[in-house]
Each structure stands twice: as structure tokens, then as C-alpha cells.
């Protein structure tokens, strides 16, 4: 299977590159091809002639995009317009396009998990830019584009080089330096291990379900506070809110999102339910594996 992976140096991109390394893989990032350059992208895709195009490129700086007009413009170019270019190049090469989207396309007002058919209603500029990417694909689906739009949430995993740190690593670093930590307790979603997501993508390529929108996250859900607490417990190095010998004491407090003002609004509840495919393993099990193999 000839696979063109775009955004290969990002957090998810690195996990996808590892998972697809046994395939005929061309893994690139912005230094090789900038997806916002329509002509260069089209030429590059014609040269590579992929059967599968996996787009893990995105502009994800949620707060920067909200407060800075230039960043917002960039977000729409990368997350929406360029996705249209990729979709067009995929049709021209008869390739299947796999694209990632986010729980932030929903407003969070629902009190049960969002299913694929729920109507998106983003409450941030980032969310609107990602919805723009979904719409660009759906427009070309009417012209024969083969596609999977995969919505996911709260990615964690190992990221080296230019890849960014995720919440799990940020919590462990903060706990090593401080003894008082506080995290938001009223934003609920599903943490997702990038290696599990990458494997789930590979499985979709084997089983080839119908083209469309899919929800792929680890099973279960939690707040940021509960995730932080689980991370600290799993690391085995900290005792939380009560002193224990041989472990560093951490005073861990839940806070409300209104007490941590940030430029962009986040959905209060954005659990994604998969009605089309079997759920992935529980996030606690995936987190344990990640911490054991990277932090112990
Ligand atoms: N992270 C999460 O928690 C999360 C949650 C839900 C959904 N998602 C979705 O999952 C996907 C992967 O996210 P991620 O967290 O892995 O992203 P990431 O770590 O920010 O990686 C994105 C990659 O895309 C590259 N890129 C950006 N603009 C590009 C361009 N114009 N041309 C080519 N490459 C470009 C970036 O390169 P530079 O470093 O040079 O910019 C970076 O290597 C995205 O679609 C995202 O919306 C992520």
C-alpha cells in the first residue's frame, strides 16, 4: 500500500509514521511540502502517486487562533482551504483521503456522547476552521472522493523533535517542580493515545468500512482534573492530597473553567461515541501503557 503521510513530524504524525512503517510509506512535513501551496501540492501528489493520503497536518494553537487575526487566517488556510487542495489531489490520483478532525466541532451543550451524525456547532475559531476542513472534504465526496474523516480528542503520546508536549507530560513535569497543582474539572472528553489511534486507522484500511465520518477515541471519559490525578497515581511517584512515605506530596485541586480565563471557549462536554466501529480500549489502560513505557 503506497501511503503519503502529511504532518509526519507532529504528535499524531509520528505515531502514524511508526505504525505505517511496514507499508510503502512517504512521510513528509512542512519542510518537504507545504499543503497551503496548491500547485506544489498537486505536483507532489502526482509524483508520489499514493493510494492512501493521510493528513495529520493542522494548525492547533487554539488560544492563539482565537485572539490573533493573523493566526485565525492561517488556521482557515491550513485546516480548511488546504484540506480542499488535498481532497482535490486525492480525487485526481484516485487515492483514499484520511483526515483528522476534532471534538471541538461540537458546542458541548449535549449531555450524552456526540455521535457522528450530530450537527457540529463549533464555539471557537479553531473549531470553525476544522469544521471548514470537514466541509471541504464533504463537498468533494459528492464528486467521487473516497474519504474517512476521523474525529478524535485529547491526544497524548510520545513526541520527539519538533513534536509538542501533551497534557500527560506537562502534568508530570509540573509535579516534579511544584507541590500545588490545579486543573479544570468541568470539561469532559476522552483522552486518546496516539498509538491506539494510529492502529485504529490501519485497521480501517484493512476492513474498509463505508466512506464517511468516524469517531475514534479511547473508550471512557474524564475531566482534565481526573486525568491529571490518574497520571500522577499511575506514575507511582506522588501521593495526592495526603502524605505517604517515599512519595512526593501534591496538593491537587479541581477548578472551574470560568476560573481559568483563556481566549478560546472549549466545549464543556465533548465525548465522541463511535456508532459505526467497535470502541478502542479504555483510556486508563492506554495511559498506563504509555506511562510505563515512557516515564517509569
Ligand atoms: N492534539 C490533540 O489533542 C488533538 C485533538 C483532537 C483532534 N486533533 C487533530 O489531530 C490531528 C493531528 O494533531 P496533532 O496534535 O498531531 O498536531 P501537531 O502535533 O500540531 O502536528 C501538526 C503537524 O502539521 C504540520 N503542518 C502544519 N502546517 C502545515 C502545512 N501548511 N503544510 C505541511 N505541514 C504542516 C506541523 O508542522 P509545523 O510544526 O512546521 O507547523 C506539524 O508537524 C489534527 O488534525 C488535529 O486537529 C488533535
UniProtKB/TrEMBL annotation:
Keywords: NADP, Oxidoreductase. The keyword Lyase does not apply. GO terms for molecular function: dTDP-4-dehydrorhamnose reductase activity. Its EC number is 1.1.1.133. Residues 1-291 form the RmlD-like substrate binding domain. InterPro entries: dTDP_dehydrorham_reduct, NAD(P)-bd_dom_sf, RmlD-like-bd. Pathway: Carbohydrate biosynthesis; dTDP-L-rhamnose biosynthesis. SUPFAM superfamilies: NAD(P)-binding Rossmann-fold domains. It comes from the Bacteria. One of its GO terms (biological process) is dTDP-rhamnose biosynthetic process. Belongs to the dTDP-4-dehydrorhamnose reductase family. This is dTDP-4-dehydrorhamnose reductase. It comes from Candidatus Uhrbacteria bacterium RIFCSPLOWO2_01_FULL_47_25.
Amino acid at each position: 500500500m503506497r501511503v503519503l503521510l502529511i504532518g509526519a513530524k507532529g504528535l499524531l504524525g509520528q505515531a502514524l509514521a511508526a505504525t505505517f512503517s511496514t507499508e510503502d510509506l512517504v512521510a513528509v512535513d512542512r519542510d518537504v511540502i507545504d499543503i497551503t501551496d496548491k500547485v506544489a501540492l498537486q505536483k507532489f501528489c502526482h509524483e508520489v502517486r499514493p493510494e492512501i493520503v493521510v493528513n495529520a497536518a493542522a494548525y492547533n494553537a487554539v488560544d492563539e487562533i482565537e485572539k490573533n487575526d493573523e493566526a485565525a487566517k492561517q488556521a482557515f488556510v491550513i485546516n480548511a482551504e488546504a484540506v480542499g487542495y488535498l481532497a482535490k489531489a486525492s480525487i485526481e490520483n484516485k487515492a483514499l483521503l484520511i483526515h483528522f478532525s476534532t471534538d471541538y466541532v461540537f458546542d458541548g451543550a449535549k449531555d450524552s456522547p456526540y455521535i457522528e451524525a450530530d450537527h457540529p456547532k463549533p464555539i471557537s475559531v479553531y473549531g470553525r476552521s476544522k469544521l471548514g476542513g470537514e466541509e471541504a472534504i464533504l463537498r468533494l465526496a459528492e464528486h467521487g472522493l473516497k474519504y474517512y474523516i476521523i474525529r478524535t480528542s485529547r491526544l497524548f503520546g510520545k513526541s520527539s523533535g519538533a513534536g509538542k508536549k501533551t497534557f500527560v507530560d506537562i502534568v508530570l513535569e509540573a509535579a516534579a517542580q511544584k507541590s500545588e497543582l490545579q486543573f479544570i474539572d468541568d470539561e469532559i472528553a476522552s483522552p486518546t493515545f496516539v498509538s491506539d489511534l494510529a492502529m485504529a486507522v490501519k485497521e480501517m484500511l484493512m476492513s474498509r468500512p463505508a466512506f464517511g465520518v468516524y469517531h475514534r477515541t479511547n473508550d471512557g471519559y474524564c475531566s482534565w482534573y481526573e486525568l491529571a490525578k490518574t497520571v500522577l497515581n499511575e506514575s507511582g511517584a506522588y501521593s495526592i492530597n495526603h502524605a505517604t512515605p517515599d512519595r512526593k506530596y501534591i496538593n491537587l485541586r479541581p477548578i472551574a473553567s470560568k476560573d481559568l480565563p483563556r481566549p478560546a471557549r472549549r466545549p464543556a462536554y465533548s465525548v465522541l461515541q463511535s456508532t459505526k466501529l467497535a470502541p478502542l480500549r479504555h483510556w486508563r489502560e492506554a495511559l498506563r501503557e504509555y506511562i510505563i513505557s515512557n516515564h517509569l
